[in-house]
Write a structure and sequence with these properties.
Helices cover 35% and strands 18% of the residues. With 117 residues, the protein is of the alpha+beta class. It has one domain. This is Lipoprotein.
Length: 117
């Protein structure tokens, strides 16, 4: 009986010391200031999908490119006055975090290919 008790105590001791280590991947912050209307998500493929906001079109564009797990997404708008040509900056600033794998994907297509060199 003593031997059985001793084995039970040893089994409990060894199993209670096991630790599970959870490694969380690092997230990378990305900020992008789009133009007034010359971005890929401003094209008919996205503007013809109903009454989507520019932010929704942006997220849909990224999802179509395989980047769908955006964390802490926000659109900050400034009150500066810009020209109204399509190639001029807009008052939007898209900020979000992505995994290392999604950051690598972002760097393979425009406008991020140029912006994230």
């Amino acid at each position: 009986m003593k031997m059985l008790t001793l084995l039970a105590i040893m089994a409990f001791t060894f199993t209670s010391c096991e630790q599970t280590e959870v490694v969380v991947g690092e997230n990378f912050a990305v900020s992008y200031k789009p133009t007034q209307c010359s971005e890929p998500w401003d094209e008919a493929a996205y503007t013809n999908k109903g009454n989507l906001s520019r932010e929704e079109r942006f997220k849909l564009f990224l999802k179509d490119k395989g980047v769908s797990n955006l964390k802490e997404f926000k659109n900050t708008q400034d009150d500066k006055i810009y020209c109204s040509a399509c190639t001029c900056p807009s008052n939007d600033l898209f900020s979000f975090k992505v995994s290392e794998a999604d950051l690598a994907k972002l760097k393979t297509f425009e406008p991020f290919k140029t912006a994230l060199k």
